[in-house]
Amino acid sequence: MQDVYIIGIGIHPFGRTDGVSGLQQGANAARAAMADAGLEWPDMQFGFGGSDSAGNADTIVNELGLTGLPFINVKNGCATGGSALIGSWQAIASGAHDVGIAIGFDKHPRGAFNALPAEYSLPEWYGEAGFMVTTQFFAMKLQRYMALHGISPTSLGRVAEKAFRNAVHADHAWRRSPVDIDTILNAQMISDPLTKYMFCSPAEGGVALVLASAKKARELGRDQVRIKAAVVRTRPPGSFEVFAPCMDIERGGAPTLLASKAAYEMAGIGPQDIDLVQLQDTESGAEIMHMAENGFCGDGDQEEWLANGWTNIDGRLPVNTDGGCLACGEPIGASGLRQVYENALQLRGLGGGRQVPGKPRTAYSHVYGAPGISGVTILER
Question: Could you tell me which residue ranges the Thiolase C-terminal domain spans (predicted)?
C-alpha cells in the first residue's frame, strides 16, 4: 500500500442556499478543491461521491465535464462522506490510480429527516409507533448514558455553547452567532434532556477533497497532509444503534469502538497522540458519548473535561473546531467530508480565528450514521 495525501480541499457553505441545487453545491466544492490542488477536472482519474437527498452523485459529471472517468456512488447514512473518502483512499493506496476526488453534497428538505422503516429492514409498525424519529432515539440513549455515568445537563449545554462559539470563525458554518449556556439550557425542550440548541439540523452544502499518491503529491509540491488511517465499520452483536428494534440483554460493543481501534492500529498511534478531533455531534450527547468511544477519555470523565474547557480550541484536545454538526448543520452526503476538510485546514495552519495553537501534527475525524456505521480517518502533517 502506498501513502496517500490530501492535496486539495474545497467547500460550499452549509445551511440554506436558495436557487442552487445540491449537485451544483457539490460541483462548486469540487472546482474549489481542484483549484487548490492546481489541477482540473480532466486530471481526475476517478471519483467517489455521495448524496442522500440531492440525486445520484455521479451525475455531477454533467456539471464538471464528460471525461469518461469511473465514478462510484456511495450511500451510507451519515457516514456517506467518510465512506466516499475511504473508497478514494483505497483506490490510490492500492496503486490503481495516482489522483482522484471524493465529493459529498446534499440539499435536504426543511424539517426532520424522513427515514422509512422498510429501508432499514424494519416493520411498518416501528415507524407508526414513532420509533423512526431520531430525536427520540438519541434522547433515550443519552438518558441511559447520563444515568450510568453521571453526565449532567450542564455538560450538554457546554458542548452546544462551544460549538456556536467556534463557528463564529468558520465561514462555511450555518449558525455563526454565539449562544450562551443559560439560553441553551432553558430553550424549548425537544426530547428530554435535549433542547432545541442541542440538535443539529438537516442542511445543504458540499465538500470535495482531491487525493494523490506520494509521488504525485511531491510533483505538485502538495505533500503536506497525509492520510494515516481510513476505516469504516458496521455494528457488532449486542450494540444499540439508531433504529435498533430492541436492546440486547447481553450487551456488545459499538461500531465506533471497532472503527477507532482499527484506525489507531493502522496509523500506529493511540488517542494520546492526537492533537485535534472532529466527532459526530448530531446532538450534544453524541459528542460526549463519542469522546469515550473513540478513546479520548473514560465514561463519565467528560464532566471534568467540559468543566475545565479541555475540548476548547485552546484546550488539551480541541473538539469540533468549526462548530461541528450543531453549528454547521448536517447535509448527509457532505458532513463526514467537512470534518476532514476542517482537519486538513487546521494541519495547514489556515484555521484563522479558530486555528488550534501549537502547530498540530495529527488530526482525527469520526462520523457515525444509521443504522450503526462508523468511519474514522486520521491525518498527519
Answer: 259-377
181 vs 187: CA distance, rounded Å: 10
Lowest mean pLDDT among 132-136, 296-300, 338-342: 132-136
Residues 207/338, Cβ–Cβ less than 8 Å: yes
The answer on pLDDT for 34 being more than 90 is: yes
Residue 372's closest CA among 53, 50, 79, 75? 79
Give me the sign of the Cα torsion angle 141, 143, 145, 147: negative
For 311, phi and psi rounded to 5 degrees?
Answer: -100, 5
**Residue ranges covered by each domain of the chain:** 4-111+200-376
CB 112 within 8 A of CB 135: yes
Q: Is 114 exposed, middle or buried (0-12, 13-18, 19+ CB in 10 A)?
A: exposed
**Integer-rounded Cα radius of gyration of the chain:** 19
Question: Which residue in the block uniquely carries the three cell numbers 452523485?
Answer: 57
Q: What is the pTM of this model?
A: 0.95
Tell me the C-alpha distance between 194 and 140, whole Å. 10
pLDDT in tens, 275-309: 999 999 999 999 999 999 999 999 999 999 999 99
Q: Which three cell numbers stand for residue 86?
A: 475511504
Domain 4-111+200-376 has CATH 3.40.50.720: no
252 and 70 in contact (C-beta within 8 Å)?
A: no
Query: In the block, which residue shows the cell 435536504?
Result: 108
Among 49-53, 133-137, 278-282, 355-359, where is mean pLDDT lowest? 133-137
84 by Cβ neighbours in 10 Å (0-12 / 13-18 / 19+) ranks as buried
State the average pLDDT for the chain: 94
The count of residues in the chain is 381
Q: Torsions phi, psi of 76, nearest 5?
A: -145, 45
pLDDT value at residue 54: 78
Pairing mode, strands 71-74 and 47-50: parallel
Report the candidate in 262, 208, 205, 222 with the shortest Cα–Cα distance to residue 88. Answer: 208
Looking at the predicted structure, is the pLDDT value of residue 130 above 90? no
